[in-house]
Amino acid sequence: MAEPQAPLSEARWRPGDRVPDTASMIRVDQAGEYGATRIYAGQLAVLASGSPAAHLVARMAAQEERHLKRFNQLMAERRVRPTLLQPLWNAGGFALGAVTALIGEKAAMACTDAVETEIDRHYAEQLRDLGDSDPELAADIRDFQAEELEHRDVAREAGAMDAPAYPVLTTAIRGICRVAIGLSKRI
After folding, report:
1. DSSP state of 183
2. pLDDT digits (tens, 9 = 90+) for 32-86
3. HEC states along 68-82?
4. CB-hemisphere CA count at 13 Å for 163?
5. What does the pLDDT look like over 84-102, one tens digit per residue?
6. How far apart are the C-alpha atoms of 162 and 170, rounded to whole Å?
7. Dihedrals φ, ψ of 28, to 5°?
8. Domains of the chain
9. What does pTM read for this prediction?
């Protein structure tokens, strides 16, 4: 059974145009925000309580919780099913956060840098695909994209680029994000 789609504005849609798959967008965005909350939970489980890095992570985690709450609301309103991979993102996100924090605070920040860089790319692609077809969803994505970029910048200011093997670490994490995004759209 096909999932409901938000109607395209008549000014933009023409017969033969591709209809943006907003259900898939909401599913993958909810999964991504859920994964982000789990990454930060893993980092907070390892980072020294009260450390500057833990303080930064806790602030970013609170914003991710707000993003997740909004996508959960959109899923319920639009009757979008969650990804079946949620248990994997639960464990995998926590493990990624914990492992990077165990490497060190700068590696934890490099993880944020990599994830948010990939999420910025992903959100930009979604906004391009949406055009003016779903103003409500586009507004949420734009708002969250701005906060994700802020997270990336905060992580860089906190020494992300000084992490051990920064290019290798961030390339690997960005690859993991791309795979998770691709899978969560469909499964």
Report:
1. H
2. 999 999 999 999 999 988 888 999 999 999 999 999 999 999 989 989 999 888 9
3. HHHHHHHHHHHCCCC
4. 28
5. 889 989 999 999 999 999 9
6. 12
7. -70, -35
8. 22-186 (1.20.1260)
9. 0.84
